[in-house]
Each structure stands twice: as structure tokens, then as C-alpha cells.
Amino acid sequence: MTTPNIIELDHVSKRFTKELDIAERTARMLGSSVEPQTVHAVDGVSFGVRRGEVMGLVGESGCGKSTLGRMVAGLLKPTDGRILFRGRDVAELDGDAARDAALKIQMVFQDPMSSLNPRLRVRDIVGEAPRVHRIAPRREVAGYVEDILEQVGLDPTTGKRYPHQFSGGQRARVGIARALAVKPDFIVCDESVAALDVSIQAQILNLFVRLREEFDLTYLFISHDLGVVEHISDRIAVMYLGRLVELGEAEDLLKRPNHPYTQALVSEIPTFETQKKIYAGIKGEIPSPLRPPPGCHFHPRCPHAHERCRIEVPALREVAPGRLSACHLNDEAAARRPEKAHA
Amino acid sequence: MTALLDVRDLHTHFFTRDGVAKAVDGISFSLQRGEILGLVGESGSGKSVTGFSILGLVDAPGRVVSGQVLFDGEDVVTAGEGTLRHLRGKRIAMIFQDPMMTLNPVLRIDTQMIEAVQAHEKVSRKEALARAREALVAVGISSPDERLESYPHQFSGGMRQRVAIAIALLHKPDLIIADEPTTALDVTIQAQILAEVQKLCADSGTALIWITHDLAVVSGLADRLAVMYAGRIIEEGTTAEVIGRPLHPYTKGLIGSVPQGKRHGTTLTQIRGMTPPLLDLPKGCKFRPRCPRADDQCLTEPPLGPVAGGRRVRCVHPHLEDQEDAVLS
Amino acid sequence: MTDQSVASELELVGNPATVRIDSPITRVAKEFVEDRIAIAGLILIVAIAFVAIAAPWIAPQDPYDLAQLSILDGGLPPGAESMTGQTYWLGTDQQGRDMLSGIMYGLRISLLVAAVSLGLAITIGVVVGVAAAYFGGKLDSFIMRIVDLQLSFPAILIALILLALLGRGVDKVILALVIVQWAYYARTVRSSAIVERRKDYIDAARCLALSHRRIMFRHLLPNCVPPLIVVATVQIAQAIALEATLSFLGVGVPITEPSLGLLIANGYDYLLSGRYWVSLFPGIALVLTIVAINVVGDRLRDVLNPRLST
Fold first, then answer.
1. Domain range spanning residue B275?
2. Which residue of A162, A270, B198, C146 has the lowest C-beta tally within 10 Å?
3. In a domain, C80, yes or no
4. Could you tell me if B313 and B307 are in contact, meaning their C-beta atoms sit under 8 angstroms apart?
């Protein structure tokens, strides 16, 4: 693969610490065992996104996928590790370079209502940044905004309306138009279709696909819905409780999931059935990120868990060309039959 | 055998500042004992309001304007509050998308469950507690005694939903109405809940109305499906038939919209336009402006007419002919 | 227990595009006028404000132009006629000032003090409150400690101490009122700004590399306005009352620029000797003003409150 990585994550971690309040601090002085709580929302994640591809990022609630997306979009600073944009650490940029990098990475949010300022007209929501940053000449901003609204499938004359006068799908389009208006290279889509009705979701997914071709965009497409991610992505990364557990080409990953967690996710994608299906479901709850289990985070729910999984954190290793997985089973399988690493 | 539930030409309207929103506008269906019906529709289709109407839970500015909801032969719409209270919780239970609609955040689970038992039956505290414990075990909760002594906020979303289901099951109701009960849950947890519900309905013979926007989720669970659009049922039939050979262009479009199982990267079949606002519905067939098959005949609204095999469809141009390009073969 | 889901369903039902094209302001205005008492309050406020502003042109006399006063007219009851044949509808005080004119000029001072202090206190409170919510962390803790400290003392006490140190004067009363009031606005703005701050549109604005100042005042602040309006109406009534109290106690405005409070104080000595009107009418003017503002404020609070459905 020679396509350069547009975004590169290098052992990125994010920890959130909840400081003790006065009552808890007093309790602690009096001998109680209250500790400041730390959540490892993202725990040493490394991967690259190639220019022009769609990288899917899936996982269930609390897996850190949104935190990761927000770090890439520059809304949160990593506690450890580096995020490189076109080979340069974004944390070390300043002034105009920092601003340019920030504009080149945009985000499309989940909730189409709360991500639009209710007090601004749509033409201002979309046109503000181009005006402020001189992306379009001042006198041409109005026309520029109309062009973009048209690009995302909105009637340009609706620019004078407020967000509450639009339907959910139209609001999603406004959110996309806002991101497009600053001519980004990279868009983080954080559950961008999750809040939409099925028929509208298809429209927006198709829009994402079309815009990517027209504007030469790269996406980090974050979703809990493996079916949606599979449809749009070239490669998929799977996260569980802050860690990357598997990464690979989309179709291949769904056909031959390696990690037991990915296998569970894949088997539980709801599909159309014409007769009753026996639902099974993997056992167990998703553990609290405050107290993740030791060793492999997935071991309490894993049907193949053994002694080593309870103690040792499995490393993310290449198990086949272009396929990374973090599971001890691979070592043992490799030891026995090195040629069939992920059968 | 008479149907357990028989909804006849139900109209539930909301009288808002801006006009009358006909959220449910002439719905009829029936449900046998032990049957699972999937009530499918997008937001604003009236599927949730239908569920609330069956329980007599529609609040102002909404009102059941006309129609009958016969539960075991008795009309719920005209029943008094006393009868309704007896029905709700005891013979018909409801599960909501947000389990906190059922659970009280400041009371312990045992308190809430004992209260729920004693609301309808004169039993001792001890016996009620035993029933509560039994119900928790039935929904797959592994350490019921510990859970009983906890507060709802100590649980994860999936666990709360299990407890809400356990409460719904306390009186072994004849009918459970579940309104998007797994929508807020993670995929792996959703599969667990589906597994439990499926097992419970099979074991106890409880009838179930599963209200959802997700046709795929309900397709593996329901015996029959009713698809709603703009306050009407537009297609009804057995799951195998509706999924395997959708007749209404909307149902066909919905199935085409879901990315699952489609070839990677292909353009999804999309339904153009958006759901019409209930205050400003189009003339004739409500799906007409979005329908690829619409013509002048569609300016008169078609009835929900019977088609071969006990199916009903509300369409002038149903997809009867093209069996060969059925969405799923 | 079903309210919420029915309401959320309804919201989607009322799915608008073509139905509702009211801007938020139009909607608020429409709902406001549904309450007759609130309309009466609003009309009264407008009338009072008009009288206050236009006092020099509409008052029968200038009560502080000594040339127009005649000591012989002192202490006349309401409705009495002066030596020159002019009717004193509300009577005169012991210096022969027409009470009606006195009240008009007094309102002018009272409202001026309240309005200027309101403007300054809101400005300070908004800047401080929005900054605290937007930047959070240590700045937020520091600012909110000051606010807490400020709010833990009774306003009247702080104002009395300040005026004891500063002396009398319209400007000094304004300064005292700003100091005792900014903290209410800061706290109000901060609490709504903290909620808004977490919404995605603020993150979206940050993604667009907009300046902090722009995000704070163009994106965050406009969404915090409704509770601010409610607090402002309560506080302006408070400010008028506080100023009246201070002036009544003799530490507020100087005798040369008497506000309603000072007028009441002037007549206080004569209350028991039968000349009730010297205190009573300014008192009624004061009460009417405050009640009118509160009635409007209550209605605004009802209309602006975020509710389940729009």
C-alpha cells in the first residue's frame, strides 16, 4: 500500500478523571476509601486512515469511538499519543497552520437538531465560517452557500429558514453542508445517520457516498451499526472498552471476523428474515469503563476465554495481510497451524 | 376462537394549536392469543400512538375520536378508569423504549416490584417478593437477590430494560405492548433481550405487539407484520410474505433502504422526499408524492384491500406482478 | 407517565417544513398576548415609561424650579386650586410642589437609575457568566466563588455599606445597584450557558475554527437569553424597590433629584398629621410600577420556558 495516510493515530489515549468533590475529599480524610475515578475512554489506539478511503469505526456504547472521533476532529486533546494530519502532529501546529489543519478536518454530528444553532438561519450556519475565514469572497458568500445547499440536496431558497423549520433528514443535510463549506479533506462522521428514519438514512448514506467522490473526501465513519458501517466503509476498525480489537478490509472482516467480539457483532447484525429466527445473543453485560476487567477486556463474555486472557492484554497483531486482531487465540492457532491464522 | 385483541377503525387525533393531527386515522387489526405482531413504521407514522390508544393512555391534547379496541370482547375505549387500571399491568403490560418510564429512580427494585404485584393481587409481601425474584430469573438476570436490593441507576441500560420486562411479566399478562424496547440498546444486548422475549412468549403464550421502526429486527421475531404510514396501515400479512414479497411500494422501499445484506458500496434504493407532516397530508394516497408508481388513480385513497393469502394492502398499484425481482429470494 | 413519548411523537407529527414559519420571537409574542393581565401590565409599563421620559414636557409644573413654587400653596389636599387657579389633582407638599409633577419627575429618576444599573449589571454579568461557562475549569470555579460570596450577603446591606462609604448621588446609587446585581445575571447566564455549551452546535463552531469571542457571543449567548429576560424583569423591579429603599433611608439620591423613594420619605412626617397624600401617591406609583413589571415578567417566564412541545 503506497497511499499515504492522511490521518495517523499514534498510541492515542484519553483518560477522563472525575475529581473528588468536597464531601468526598472530607470522607477520604476521615479514612474512607473513595478514590478519584479515572476512565480510560481510549487506551493506546494506533491506526492510519488512507487518503480517499472510508474508515469505519464500530463499537458499542462506552467503547470510546466517539471520544476518538472528537480527538481526531480536534475537539478533545489526547492525554497521551499523537494525532498526525498529513504527517504533522496537530498538537504542535499553531497560528494559521493550526487553523488550516482544523478546517481541513470537519465533523458531522449525530443529533441533527442539537448540532445546529437554533438562533441562526441556515444560510448563516453554513456561511459563517466561509465568511470569517475568507474562504469565499465576502460578496460571493451568499452564492457560495446556495451552491453548497444545492450540492447536499437542499433547495437553496430555504437558506433563510431556521433549523426548527426543517425535517430531521434536511437538518442532517444542513450539518453536512456546514462541514463542506470550509472545503475539508477529512470528515469525521459521528453516528451521523443514527438518529434518522430508515428511509431517510438511506438518502443520507447515498449522499455521503456521492460527496466523497465529488469532493475527494476521506471519512472516519463512526457508528454502532455494523450493517451501516459495512455498507459505506473500505476498512473497518472495531473497538471494545477503549481498545482497538480488530481492523481489516470491510467485506473480508464481515465474512471472516477474527476476534470473538467481532464475530459476535457480525452474527447479531439484524437481517431480514422470512421465518422466525432463534435469537441467542452473547452472554454478559458490557463492563463499566470505570472498572474494566483485567487482561483482555472481552474475556468475561468470550466463549473461548482461558487463563491467559484473564491476565495478559493481547497485542494487536497482523494475523493476515491487512488484518489486525488482538486475540490470544491467534498465537495458539499460529503455533499449531501457521498457514490458517483466521479460518 | 375470538381474537384476543380486535382494533376496529381506530382514530386517535391530537388537537394542537396549529390544527388537528390525525396521528392514527382508521386502523383495524386483530391479534390472536400467543401471536406476535410487528407494528412497523417511521417516526410520525402513528405506531406509538396506536400502542397508547390500546392501553387508553392517550393524554390531552390527544383523544381517541372513534373506533373500538376490543380486548377479550370488552371495549377499552369506552371502559371506565377502574376497568382500565385492572387491565393495565395485569392483563396488558407495556414496555417502553426508555425503561425509566416504568422504573422509579428513587425506589429500590424490590419495593417497586412488590408494589406492582400487590397493586393487582392480595398477596403477602413475602410471596410478592418471591414472585419478583422469579420474574427476574425468567428474564435472564443471574443474581436476582442482589439486583432486588439495588436502585435503577446502578444498572446498565440493558439491565434496566430487563427489569422493566420482568415487571411487565409479573402478572403473566395476556398481551404485552413493547414500544421500541431495544432501540436504545447496543447490538449484543439487543440480541439478548430479543432472545429472552422470544422465549418468554413461547413459554407463556403471551401475545406481543412489537412496535418498531426497524423492519429487520422484528422480521425474525414476529408472526405477522403491519406496516404503518401517516396514521394508516398500508400493508399487512405474515412476516414471510411481507418481507419476502412486499406488495406496497413503501414497504418495498423500506426494505431497499436498509444497508444490511446489500452489496458493499452500492447505492441504496432510497425513498425520495420525506414523511409528510400530519397537519398537511397529501390528497389521496398518503405515499403518493414519494411513490415511483403513482399516477392519477392514486388521487383517491385506496382502501386496505385483501389480496391472496390473507394479506391486505392499501395500494392501487401493488407489486403483484414482479415476483421474480423480490427483494429477498 | 406517557406524556413524554406522546409528546415526542407529536413533535415529529407536527413536523413542520410547510406548517410553521413563525420565528421564535413571533411565537413568543403570539403566546404573550393570550394573557389579558399581562397585556394590561405591559400597557401600564409603557405608559409609566412614557410619563417618566416625557415628564419635562407634560408635567403641569417643574417642581424643582423654585420660581414656579409658591409656599402659599404648601400642603394643599388633592383637587385644591392654587392661587393662580391651577388645580393640584394630587395635592401639594409643604413647599407647595404639585405632587403629580413631583411623581412624574420622581419616576424619571427611579427608572433612570434602574435602567442604567440594569444595563451595566447585565453587561458585566453576561460577559463573566458566559466566559465562566465556556472556559470552565479554574476560571469558572474562581468566578463562581465570587458570585456565591456576593449573593450570600443581603443586597440592601452591601448597598448601604457602599453608599455610606461613597456618599449620596445618582451615579453612586447606580454603582451600588450594579455591584449588588451583576452576580444574579452572571449566575443565570452561566447556568443556561453550561447546558448549551455541551450541545453539538458549539463543538461544530469550534470545528470551524471560529474565535472564542465569536462562539461565546454569537453562538452561546443568544441561546441563553430567555432565562436572562426573566431574571432581568425580576431584577429591575428589585432595583427600583432597592433604590426607593435607599432613598427613603436618606442614603440614596440627593434632595435636588428626588426619586419616588425620597418623595415618600418627605411625606412620611406628615402621614399622621392628615396629609396622607404626600406619601401615598408616590407610594402608589411605586407599587404600580413594580407590580406591572412583575406581571409582565411572570408571563414572559411562562412563555419563554422551554417546554416539551413547541
1. 243-313
2. C146
3. no
4. yes
Q: For residue C77, is it within any domain?
A: no
Q: Residue A236: pLDDT above 50?
A: yes
Neighbours of A19 (CB within 10 A): 8
C-beta atoms surrounding C218 within 10 Å? 17
Query: Vertex A270, ends A200 and B164: CA angle to 5°?
Result: 95
C15: amino acid identity, one letter: N
**Across the B/C interface, how many CB contacts are shorter than 8 Å?**
63
CA dist B135 and C130 (Å) reads 50
Q: Burial letters for C269-289: b for 16+ Cβ neighbours within 10 Å, e otherwise?
A: ebeeeebbbbbbbbbebbeeb
pLDDT, average across residues C286-298: 91
Q: Which chains touch B (3 or more CB pairs under 8 A)?
A: A, C
The answer to whether residue C256 sits within a structural domain is yes
* Contact yes or no for A38/A32 (Cβ under 8 A): no
Interface contact flag, B259 A230, Cβ < 8 Å: yes
The CA distance from C247 to C251, in Å, is 6
A224 touches chain B (CB under 8 A): yes
Which three cell numbers mark C201? 452546535
Please say whether the beta carbons of C298 and C227 come within 8 A.
no
Nearest CA in chain C to B103: C1
Report the alpha-carbon distance of residue A43 to residue A296 in Å, rounded.
13
Cα–Cα distance measured from residue A2 to residue A5, given in angstroms and rounded to the nearest whole number: 9
| Residue A133 clears pLDDT 60, i.e. is over it | yes
Buried b (16+ CB within 10 A) or exposed e, C219-251: bbbebbbbbbebbbbbbbbbbbbbbbbbbbeeb
For chain A, domain boundaries? 5-240, 256-343
Angstrom distance (rounded) from CA B170 to CA B15: 36
Domain count, chain C: 1
Q: What is the pTM of this model?
A: 0.84
ipTM of the assembly?
A: 0.87
Provide the CATH number for the domain around residue C215.
1.10.3720.10
Using CB atoms, which residue from A73, A115, A168 is nearest to C201? A115
Contact A50, A9 (CB under 8 A): no
Three-state SS at A161: coil
Contacts of C15 in chain A (CB under 8 A): 167
Q: Is residue B321 part of a domain?
A: no
The answer to whether A312 touches A297, Cβ cutoff 8 Å, is no
- Tell me, rounded to whole angstroms, the distance of Cα B199 from its chain centroid: 18
What residue numbers bound the domain in which C176 lies?
Answer: 47-61+97-304
Residue A53 contacts B, CB cutoff 8 Å: no
Task: Inform me whether the pLDDT recorded for A113 exceeds 90.
Answer: no
Which of B194, B193, B114 lies closest to B157 in space, CA to CA? Answer: B193
**Cα distances (Å, whole numbers) of residue C83 to B115, C73, C86, C277:** 84, 7, 7, 20
What are the tens digits of pLDDT across the range B231-265?
999 999 999 999 988 999 999 998 888 887 666 66
Q: Which residue of A has its CA nearest to B327?
A: A272
**Alpha helix locations (H) across chain B?**
47-54, 81-87, 109-120, 125-138, 144-148, 157-169, 187-204, 215-219, 239-244, 249-257
CA distance C83 to A45: 95
Mean pLDDT rounded to a whole number for chain A: 89
pLDDT in tens, B10-68: 999 999 877 888 999 999 999 999 899 999 998 889 999 999 999 888 887 888 999 99
- Cβ distance B14 to C10 less than 8 Å, yes or no, reads yes
Question: Looking at the domain A5-240, which fold is it?
Answer: Rossmann fold (3.40.50)
Residues 153-182 of A with CB under 8 A from B: 167-170
Q: Domain total for chain B?
A: 1
> Does residue B217 sit within a domain?
no
Q: How many CB pairs under 8 A join A and B?
A: 154
